[in-house]
Write a structure and sequence with these properties.
ribosomal protein; NA-bd_OB-fold; five-stranded mixed β-barrel; rRNA-binding; 5 strands; OB fold (Dihydrolipoamide Acetyltransferase, E2P); about 10% helix; mainly beta; Ribosomal_uS17_bact/chlr
């Protein structure tokens, strides 16, 4: 079974080797049909304490690391890239 990968924003990096990531998804209301935002916070493992609050990251499901941590940070998502930078990377 493949590991799930989610993208979210770090809301806390105060604990050692752990970041709290807020993942937001959009769902359709079952009765009214309006698109609404739902969010959930995940505790993710950050071995080197390299990620800071406010950064957008991808997290991957892992075997349980502690009581709350079953995710680890995979990498940083560059949300402020200009089209020229994206073309240069490709």
């Amino acid at each position: 079974m493949p590991k799930r990968v989610l993208t979210g924003i770090i809301v806390s990096d105060k604990t050692d080797k752990t970041v709290v990531v807020n993942v937001e998804r959009k769902v359709k209301h079952p009765l009214y049909g309006k698109i609404i935002r739902r969010s959930k916070k995940y505790h993710a493992h950050d071995e080197a304490n390299e990620y800071k609050a406010g950064e957008t990251v991808r997290i991957e499901e892992t075997a349980p690391i502690s009581k709350l941590k079953t995710w680890k940070v995979v990498d940083r998502v560059n949300t402020h890239a200009t089209p020229a930078e994206v073309a240069a990377e490709a």
